[in-house]
Design the sequence.
């Protein structure tokens, strides 16, 4: 799956309400791919009206998109219900993983993603995904975030995180490097000897289940997590 392009397409649809063909041109993929990727992205009334003005045939497309969005929302709601049921078991690992994600995870609708510099913390998160959701190693992806003084040790650092998480190198995405600005005076040097790592699984079911669990444990409702 073209993960980066998919996220770019969804953001263009969500933030700017662009037509599918225009998104496809900007991202560099087929319109059919964009159509699948953005079908559950809700649009504002202003965005809908702008699309209608650009394309008279949009009303027909809109009806299909609306049905898809409704089905997607219903599916996410069902996954949250599953998470609420899991929370009622109060399994210690599940409690720890859900609370960890609430505190440290990226709040996305279709992937569970967490970044940190603490090896034991990311180990726990990976163990949570594997044990509570049956996520296989092949589905996990990690991205190392390095600082400028790490560049010469990039392979070593990447291997460190792979060993911490017991993952093959095929799970490693391209690392990112934060270079020093001219104002930093290199203050970050040696602060984080292995930088940070991001652990991710692309699964609407997993992340929405976690959201449902968080709400059940903490006793609140957050409708925007369904969007």
Sequence:
């Amino acid at each position: 799956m073209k993960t980066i392009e998919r996220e770019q397409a969804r953001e263009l649809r969500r933030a700017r309400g662009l037509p599918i063909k225009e998104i496809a041109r900007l991202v560099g993929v087929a319109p059919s791919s964009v159509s699948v990727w953005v079908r559950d992205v809700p649009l504002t009334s202003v965005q809908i009206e702008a699309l209608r003005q650009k394309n008279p045939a949009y009303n027909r497309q809109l009806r299909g998109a609306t049905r898809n969005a409704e089905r997607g929302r219903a599916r996410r709601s069902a996954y949250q219900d599953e998470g609420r049921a899991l929370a009622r078991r109060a399994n210690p690992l599940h409690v720890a993983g859900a609370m960890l994600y609430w505190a440290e995870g990226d709040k996305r609708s279709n992937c569970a993603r967490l970044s940190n510099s603490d090896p034991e913390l990311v180990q726990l998160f990976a163990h949570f995904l594997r044990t509570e959701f049956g996520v296989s190693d092949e589905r996990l992806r990690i991205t190392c975030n390095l600082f400028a003084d790490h560049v010469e040790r990039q392979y070593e650092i990447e291997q460190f995180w792979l060993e911490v998480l017991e993952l093959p190198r095929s799970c490693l995405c391209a690392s990112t490097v934060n270079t020093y600005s001219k104002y930093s005076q290199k203050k970050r040097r040696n602060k984080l000897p292995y930088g940070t790592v991001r652990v991710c699984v692309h699964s609407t079911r997993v992340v929405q289940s976690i959201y449902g669990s968080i709400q059940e444990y903490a006793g609140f409702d957050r409708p925007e997590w369904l969007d």
In short: Residues 85-226 form one domain. The chain has two domains: 3-56, 85-226.
